[in-house]
């Protein structure tokens, strides 16, 4: 049995001469949380739509759970698109049951599952309300329940935390991790780097339809080296940006992150800072996915210019 939940090999898609996805190859491990990253227009949504056969690939092959991506294979995927597809004037539990029957569940079994899931996401009291009566965040939860209700083996979630307040977002993250513990494969497409860093086992970064990097999160970060220094201090740290070997200083209020050029000595930064500031924290850390994202996309854009 294939170890990949989804495998793309040389997949290409063009629209009126514009190449949206170019010879993209990905292998998404089973039972993992996988992050598909990229700036707006990178080809993420087009890629997911090809997996679901909403769009047909011009070339290349797609496999799902070790078999060609036919309808039977796609029925084992739960897909939550960024553009939500619910009916505003339909009662919540009725439309959840309707969508589940499209995936092969009986109406009776679908309604049996609806109650526990709505309770889990905090919408038990709203099951008999029409969708338009719910807030945007609550509608987002309904869309998520519609995705998981048929108990798919693979979940593809496009911006799953969009519209959720911080409490609801934390609850959603815990639910996603619980699904992973159950052996589900989760594919997240998101701009929220913190979410990806906390949840994902592996990632792929694409830009202008091409893959820039992929692999386990730990390996991706290790390849970019431990070249970031975190400093917390009292005093005026404006001089830090001018120190030799400093590429960039990001100010987060209570601390700064200093990105160093390759080969620079973090201890030299510490020595200079200690003579001019009162330090409360000095730490050498791996670059964040946010920094890697910006670096790779910027470098790719400059190379293509």
Describe this protein's structure.
This protein has 305 residues and is α/β, with parallel strands linked by helices. It is globular.
- In whole angstroms, the N-to-C terminal distance is 43 Å
Q: Please count the helical segments.
A: 10
Overall helicity: 25-40%
Average residue pLDDT: 90
Structural class: alpha/beta
Order of helices and strands: EEEHEEHEHHHEHEHEEHEEEHEH
Q: Please tell me what the overall shape is.
A: globular
Q: What's the alpha carbon Rg, rounded to whole Å?
A: 22 Å
Number of strands: 14
Summed up:
The protein contains 10 helices and 14 strands. The chain is α/β, with parallel strands linked by helices.
Write the layout of secondary structure elements.
Elements: E1 4-15, E2 18-29, E3 33-37, H1 44-51, E4 59-64, E5 67-68, H2 71-74, E6 77-80, H3 92-102, H4 107-120, H5 136-148, E7 154-158, H6 166-181, E8 185-189, H7 193-199, E9 202-207, E10 210-216, H8 217-223, E11 228-234, E12 246-251, E13 256-260, H9 266-276, E14 278-285, H10 289-304
Parallel strand pairs: 3-8, 3-9, 6-7, 7-8
Antiparallel strand pairs: 1-2, 1-4, 4-5, 9-10, 11-13, 11-14, 12-13
